[in-house]
Structures are given as C-alpha cells and as structure tokens.
C-alpha cells in the first residue's frame, strides 16, 4: 500500500488518471504495484504471494467503496460496480462450488442477493428498514410487505427490467429515452452509448454475482449462450478459458479473482435482447414505477422532510453539525439505489434536488447555505456532461429553476439595498454568488427581458435609497446648532466621499455584471449636493463677509471648494455620461479674488515685520540676513496655497497667479524702498551733538584739509557691516525671486493668458510705464556772484498738482553734475512734469537753480525707443544756456505675471545699483582729490609733498594682503628713511609718480577691508568694478572735457603730465588685478579702459589733423559700425535671471566706436573749434533721427503684415 501511495502522488500518475478517469484503471495499477512487491517478499513461499495479492486487491476495493460512500456527487453506477467487485473479491469458502450455500447478505441490502439462499428478515435489510422509517411503517407490516413481494420482486424480474430498458432504447420507446428527447444527434448518441453501457454493466454484475440467472434465462428464454466469454476489458491478461473453468480456477492464478470481475460480456446481452421475443417493448417493469421522475422527486422530498423533522426534534442538540446537503447517509443510499433501478439520469437528480431545496428555502425551512451546495451538484454534473448533451426536458427544467432562483435572490438583493450606503459584503455576498453562478451558466437567455426589467427596478431602488439617505443626512447636519453655514456642506462632502470609497472598496466589480453601486449612489447624491450648494450661495457669501471675524472663515470656503472639486471629479469618473450644472470656478472665483485682495493688503505688514525683526547680521556664507528670507517665506505661502487649490479653470488660475505676481512685485518694491532708506540713514548719518556739513562726506572734508594744511594722516570713512548686509539682501532677493518665478511657472501662465484671451466686461483704459533716466546737467549757474562757486544739486520731478514723484541724490561741488538715476512712472494719459534742479542748503529751504517742463505723452513715445530729451532750464540768469538731459522710454503696462516680475527684478536691480553707487560716492571725493590736476601740477613742480614715502610704499604692497586677503609674492623694498630723492623734478621716476597717489592706496586699504569681509562675492566684485569705473571716469576727466557743443576753458596737459596720468592708470590697474587674485584683466581692460587709452593716441595731434580724422572716423562709423538704435530695455527683458543674463551677453557683444567722440572732446580744448564740433554733433543727431524713423517704419510694416500692434516688450 505504501509503495502504491508513493506512485499515486507522482505527477505522471495524476496526469494519466486525469486522462483515463476510470476506477478500473486505478484498481489495475494497484494490482500491478502489489504484484511486483509481493513477489519480492521472502516470507511468501511458493504461490502464497498470489493469495496475498487477492487479499490486497479486495482490501483496496473495500477502501475505495468506503471512501466514496459519503460523497454525494458519486454516481450510483460507480457505487454499484464497486459493490460488485467487492463481492467477487471476497475470500472463497471451503466448498468447491462457486456459490455459497449459506445465507450471505450484502451490506447495502440490495434486492439482488449474492447467494442462492436469501435471508427474508427485514432487520437484515438496511434499505428496507430505511423505507420503513421514512414512511413510518411498523417493522411487522414491513416484514409482511416484503414477504408478499418476494415472489414478484425477484432477481430475474430485476434482470428482465434491465433488458426491457435496453430493448426500449433500441426500439425508440419513450422510456428510458429516445431521439426526440435530445436537442441533437450527438447528444442522443452519447446518452444512448452511456445508458446502454450502464445497463449492460448492471446485468453483467447481476449475472456475475448469481450465474444461475444466466442459466435460468437461457433455459427459459432460448438457447444457452455457451460461447467462450471474452475477458473483461479491465483485466491485465486475456482469459481464454470457459466461464466455468475461469470461475473455478485455482487461486494460484494471478488473474483468478480479478478476471472474474468481467463476468458475462455486456455485448452478449445487448445482442440477445433484440432477439428475445419474450421481452416486450413498452413500460412493462416490475421495479420501475409508471412515472419514475415523479416518484423519484417525491422520494427525495420525503427524505428531506424526514431529515428536517429530525433536525428540529428535541433529540438533536443545537451544537450538532448538520450537513448542508440535509440528507443523511441511509437516505442517500436509498435515493441512489432507486435512481439506478429507475434509470434516473444524473442531470435530473441534481436538478430535482436543486428544485426541492429551492422550494424548502422559499418556505424558510432550510438555510441560505443549502442553495450553493445544491448548485455545486449541478455544477459537477455540468462539468461531466455539458448542457447541450442533456435531454431537452432536463435542460428546460434547469433553466426554469435557475430563472426562479434568479428572481428570488434578485428580490433578496433588492431588499438588502435598504441599508445603503452601509451595506456590507457579508450581507449580500451569498445572493451575489448564486446570481453570478446562474448568470454565468448561459441558460438565462429566454428570461432576458424579464431580468432586464428586474435589474432596472433594482437600479431605481438603489437611486431612491441614495436620495433618501442624502436628504436625511443633510437634514440632520443642518439641524445641528452653529452659525457656520459651510460646515454642513463640508461634512456632507466627507460623507459622500467616504460612502463612495467604502462602496468602491467593498464592491469593485458591478453586481450581477451590471449594477455599479458606486456609480448609482454618486449619480444621485452629487447633483443633490450641488443643488444645495447653489441654494446656499448667497448665505455663504454673506456669512463670509460679515465682519473681521466672519461666521464662515475663508479657510472653510476653500476647503469646500476642494471637497466640491473632488466630488465633481468623482462624479465624472463614475458617471461619464452624467451632467452636473455647476461652474465651480465661477462659483468660488469671488472668494479667491477677495482672498487675493486681503493678501495684497497684508503685504506691507509682511515687509515691516520682516525688517523690524532683522538685526541685519549675516546668517550664512552668502552674507544676507533674516528679513529677506522671512519676506519670501511669507510670499511663498500664498503661492503654495493657490497651487494646492488646483483650480479647475486654467484661465482663471492664470489670472489668480497674475494677481499674486502683482502683490509679489509690490512687496519687493516696498522692501527695496525700506532697505534703501535704512541704508541711506547709515551712509549719511545725521549729527547728534553738532551740525555737520551735509553737502560733503567726511572723506571729502579730510581731503580738503589735506590740500590746505598738508596734513599727513587722514582717517578713512567707517563703512558699517550692516550696510553691506543690506546690499547682500538685495542680491539674495534676486535669486529668491527667480526661484519664485520658476515655482509659479510664470512663462506657462503667460502662455495660457495669451492663448485664452478673456472677454472683458468693460474696456479699461490702457496704462503705460515710462522709464525716465535723469542723466546730467550742463552749464549750471551759481547762485552767488563768486566765479569760483560750485553747486550741491539734486533733481525733483513733480506732477501738475505739485506732488513730488521723483527725487535724485545730491551731487556736490559741480556745475555739470551727473546723476545717472532711473525712475519708473505709470500713466494712463498724458502727464506734465516739472523738472526742478535745486541747490542743497544746510538750513532752510533748498534754492531753485533752474526748472523746465516735459510731457509724458504715450502717443509721442509709441515707438518704444529711448529718446534723449534736452530741457533748457529757466533760471534768473537769462544769458547762460543751462540745460538738463533726460533719457525717456515707454512700454505698455500689461496685466501679466512676466511684467510684474520684470518690475520686481528692475526694482531690485536699481536698488542694488543705487546702493553700490553710494559706496562709490563715498569713495569718489577722495579719488577725485587724489587723482587731480592739482596733484599732477604739484608733482611736476618737484616740491615735497610732506608724505612718508616708506609708509606709502608699504601700504601699496600690503593692500591685498589686508583688504582682499591675497598673498602678494613680490615684495618691494622701501627706501631708507634717511635717503632723500636724488632725481630732479623734471626727471620723475615711477616710484615718485606712484608715491603721489599713496594716500589713495591707504584709503582703499582701510575701506575695502570692510567691504571684503561683509559683502558677498558677487556684490564685492560689482562694487570693485564700479570703483574701477569711477577711477577711469576721473582719469578721463583729467585729460579731456565732456562731449558738448559748448566751449570749454579746460587746458590740455603737457606730455609729461599725460605720462604721469597714464602711469597712475597702470599702477591702479595692477593694484586691482593683484597678480591674478583680484579682478580679472578682462574686466579691468574693458571698453571704457580702451577708450581712455585711445586718448593718448590723439592727444598731441595737430588741430587740422584731428578734424580730418574726426570726419573720416565719423563717416566710417555712420556707414559701417553704427547699428540701428535698439529698442529700450523693457521690463520683460528683466523678468528673471535668465533674461537678465542674456541681455548682459548681448550688451557685451556690442561693439562701441567712440574714437570720433574722443577726438571731439580733445578739440574742445583747442581754439576756434566750437563751430566744427557743433556741426559734427548736429550731423550725428540727424543721422540717428533718420535711423530711428527707419526702424519705426520697419516695425510698423511688420506689425501691419502680422495684423498686430507692435509689442511693448
């Protein structure tokens, strides 16, 4: 047995059995395995192994029978064959006869006895006792009935019944079946083959058990069939012996017992039955009732009733387990035996049982769990025999039962929907399993119309329950106390979403293949919610604006937006064909606009709070302080809030971000103004104990004292670290603003607005942004009569009402001041401005030097080019031609994010430039004092300057070690203190020339140390470059006067003086270069540096030669090099760091040609050249005007060709 078990568990054996599906094949395999094992057993001598082989096979068959006894879906035919094999393999008696003389009763109590003597006691007949108990027949009455039927219900009568069935089939009689009962020829052929085989097997089993039946049939019905019987198809070897010898063969033969299982050939019965005239066609049976199916159904019903009565009787404990098949083993055996004898096919057995269970379930007598068990029996039958091979009657009966079950459980599902949306899977899963089983059977086609109608009713019921649940829940929420009218709606959104997610999780697939619970619930509840939301619109708006602490906080409104948006998305996902009449963007847009307005009003508070909490101390390596970080954290908060809204309308979303961009620009501009005010306070502190002259810096006062008193030591101006940190903050703000630009995706927002232009509700007046640069003034007239008096001037621009719009810084001690400051003015109509130049007074009102007027008219500047406007000043001295240069440009002020970010970047850039200019302005007076004609003349005179030369040289060589932290490898050895200059004044050495500007190096040494320590790397480099530019400007001013058509009283320097100036330039260049550790040579030797060097080339030329060269150079420049004037650098060019860097690269690539202008400046120092200079300047102006007009015409033609207005950027 163990060896066979190992073989049985192998994959190959399982595959073979799956293909054969025969119990005989299994028994033969066991016999083969047992034979090989027993032959090797040493304890079994001679032929003892054969006896043991028969015993092993008999035990194996008995085990199979016992295992299959309690299995409900095992066919009765299989059980009958196993019973027959078990009987034949029983150990033989000591008699030589093939039959026992003693009474042998079969375990099952079949009507077919195994011996010639049959025990007549009903107590030894289990099936008879089962019938007595079933119908409550007393034992004696049952015994009497058995005794009465013994002569009629014989084995021979049973055999004749089987033969009659076989003959009816061949004759086409109604019972047990005919061709008309089946839907196809194939189904009829398959049933006929199987039925004939089963009948033959039963007859073979009976004859094999009782061979006398064959003799009696032969003697009574015709000649005995004496032909040699073929061996069974299940035998391992072919048996050629006659039946008698085979049956009485010695047990020594391997197939002695096993071959007997073949008995009489089934084919012989099939052949004889048609020739047997005694067997009549028709319903002439002893054991088979007139209507077998009706009797069978009634029998099963009686068995189930009996089982249920026993189940509910006091004899059965509640804890006892009851099979879901209801039927006990004795009843199952009785039903199976009747099914075999009455020729009830397996399809009808399974269908009949399902029908009865359905009826008992409808009456509430069996639980729901019995239905799936009955369906499993049908499923097993369908697996063994497809529905198209069933008889028409059985198939129609099954379809009818399925239809009835479908209606029953669809009704149960209908009533289960009462608990929506809290229905649980466990509550309806049994119904769904049955419904799905029936739906997948394919038998419901005839009921399709009725099923569709019932499913529509179910869907309507789900909708009705969903509506009722929503209304009850909303009424409950609204009846709760409180003034927040948004709260019930918020809670309802949570309830709807929670229910939908719960149903979607519990029922991911549609019920019965069609009913989507989530879709039906969402389809009804979301529109109801939207309707309630729209009804509450007015109350929500009123409650959210009824004071500083409204009943409905704005946060709840936005939470309601998010929840509503989620519900609408859920509605579109589950109900793609549904429609909800709600423009969610339009509904909530007014709340967002109000929130943006409130955010804009808080901007000033954010800026003030950030600055108030800042000590302006560097917090990291970049050198900026906390205020700029705090401010941009505050600005990122509304940006993140808007992004989290995920606004549904793309255009509205772009408008929101555009409005927020305006707020950001406003905050940045305010921060720039506030920081600049603090910066100016630090750079120009007001005196506390005495009135310090405000028109000059401390270093300028010290320089004047040095000139007058020849003082050797001058204290440097004390730059404060806080001032450097403020400049670092502005630089850091540009990076933070650029990050904000990218986070907001400003370019994408602008594209959206351009692609989806709105339909304006009203036409708004266009606004224009004017950029006014106050460049310089010329030939200002002192207010007093002294010819050597100078002015401390600043410029103001005022509107028609006298409101001051613009004010520049003060330029001290100059009649030709250069302010170079830029301002933005936004206008929507022509604006007249008064330009006033005032002389700063120490006390009282500032005196007016001159004034003029300019009109900022958009029509006049519509070419979007830069215009140089010279304004003649009205002053008390009418004989002098004083004038001021304004550089004016205009661009369209558009309401888009790029424009606002451009303004913010421009504000930062100008603040950065103004603060750097202040740093340079603090150094400029001493630079001008140290590099001046007075110093040159003094050096040429050869007088002692009163300076400590050794200290000066030491300061020069040690500057970058202390100020910029560099290590200078070359050390200059100073002269001994006792050594005096040995060179005559007219033969100055480089050392002496350098000594003359040692005070300037000392000044740099003291001031650049603070800048190097506290400025960021970028800011430090920009400040140094501006200082270098100032140095170049001062040196240029030493050599030539500025370009103008007015006469100049400046005299040219001698050759030696020019050499001194250019050697100073070389010393200062090397100083800033610092052997490669300072500013790069590329930055130092810029265009301005090259222009200054070119002065040396033309400085000593003859006047006529200069004029000729100027004409030639001007003509060549105008013909080849001067490009068409470019449009002004607009706000759009500065909207982020990328566009700013691109603009710088383009500017760097532009080639400047200024040699002609330099020659004109030199000619101003020559006599009789004023007329020539005026002609050249006028010619240059006319050419420039023509080029500008040509460019404007070209732009207009291009605009007309594209059908657009010339863009402002």
Automatic annotation (TrEMBL):
Residues 558-675 form the MHD1 domain. InterPro entries: C2_dom, C2_domain_sf, Glucose_resp_signaling, MUN_dom, Munc13_1, Munc13_dom-2. Residues 89-114, 213-265 are annotated as: Disordered. Residues 243-265 have a biased composition (Low complexity). Signal peptide: none annotated. SUPFAM superfamilies: C2 domain (Calcium/lipid-binding domain, CaLB) (SSF49562). Residues 748-871 form the C2 domain. Residues 213-238 have a biased composition (Polar residues). Residues 994-1110 form the MHD2 domain. It holds the Pfam family C2. This is C2 domain-containing protein.
